[in-house]
Amino acid sequence: MLILQDDLIIDAARRQIVTAGIKMVEQKMIAGSWGNLSIKIDTSRCAITPSGRSYDSLNTEDIVVVDMQGNKIKGALIPSSETPLHLAIYNAIPAAQAIVHTHSVYASACAALHRSIPALIEDLVQIIGGSVDVAEYALPGTKVLAENALIALKNKKAALLANHGVVCWGISLETALMTAEIVEKYVHKGDKLYIEGKLRTRNYDDSKGVKRYITEVFVDSIEMLTPKVQQQAAPVPPPLPTQQPTQRQQQQVQQPAYQQQPYQQVSPPDDLPF
């Protein structure tokens, strides 16, 4: 009876991950097999997406169960290359019950620029805990990346990974995914941006074996042209009558292009940096 109940708990976690993965594809927060999701089953195990599998073709049996040292317990596939990142967050933050790592467009642009996302919208303060800071660059799947991410997370629920997207945690997979959506909400469809960079095209095979092509912008610099009203993290005295509204917020950086980043392309296929 206990074995049957445990199987039901694992199956429920796997189904949640598959459903969330499909939602992320539909929202264009991930493409192909990039990014990863996990749920903490209990204090000794978590379920995580496999390496190299497209999210629109995942089924429950594809989700891998590992212990908190990264040893595979259940599943035929290889767990995500970012398993060390997920385990480090679970071990360091007991409240974390689910983790989402995405390569969503606008958060990834900020990550490529090594530019923190300031707490300019109310949701960033209320849900995430403030600005979304950037973890120092490290190779994907490494212990150093996990350590850097924990430093950037501090007491908050999201952090940018330099040249590598965003990682978020929550008390459930639903809240972790919502946190990732809030980070992406910093820039809306229709906002005006000035971007300088390079174009690169890649491809992957979808669940029906059809080759899909994606064109991405590798950003060197970005400037926000649409003004944003700054939200205060805490109550402040009202402005004097003579005060004028705040000037438009601009983001402009002088970061080197991605091609100048000092690392070699050795990433596994499920979570490539950019």
Description:
The protein has a single domain (1-274), classed as Class II aldolase/adducin N-terminal domain (L-fuculose-1-phosphate Aldolase, 3-Layer(aba) Sandwich). It contains 6 helices and 10 strands. It has helices at residues 2-26, 83-92, 105-112, 122-128, 143-153, 173-184, and strands at residues 36-42, 45-48, 64-67, 72-74, 98-102, 134-135, 158-161, 165-170, 193-205, 211-224. α2 (83-92) crosses α5. It is globular, with a radius of gyration of 19 Å.
Throw out a few tags for this protein.
single chain, 274 residues, alpha+beta, L-fuculose-1-phosphate Aldolase, two-stranded antiparallel sheet, 6 helices, 10 strands, 27% helix, 23% strand
Short description:
The chain is built from six helices and ten strands.
How are the SSEs ordered, and which strands pair?
Layout: H1 2-26, E1 36-42, E2 45-48, E3 64-67, E4 72-74, H2 83-92, E5 98-102, H3 105-112, H4 122-128, E6 134-135, H5 143-153, E7 158-161, E8 165-170, H6 173-184, E9 193-205, E10 211-224
Parallel strand pairs: 6-7
Antiparallel strand pairs: 1-2, 1-5, 2-3, 3-4, 5-8, 7-8, 9-10
Helix pairs in contact: 2-5
The largest sheet has its strands arranged as: 4-3-2-1-5-8-7-6
Count structural domains.
1
- The CATH architecture category equals 3-Layer(aba) Sandwich
CATH superfamily membership: Class II aldolase/adducin N-terminal domain
Q: Termini, distance in Å?
A: 47 Å
How does the overall form come out from the CA principal axes? globular
User: How large is the share of residues in beta strands?
Assistant: 15-25%
Q: Could you tell me the mean pLDDT? A: 80
Q: Provide a count of the helices.
A: 6
Q: How are helices and strands ordered from N to C?
A: HEEEEHEHHEHEEHEE
Radius of gyration: 19 Å
Count the strands?
A: 10
- Kindly provide the name of the CATH class: Alpha Beta
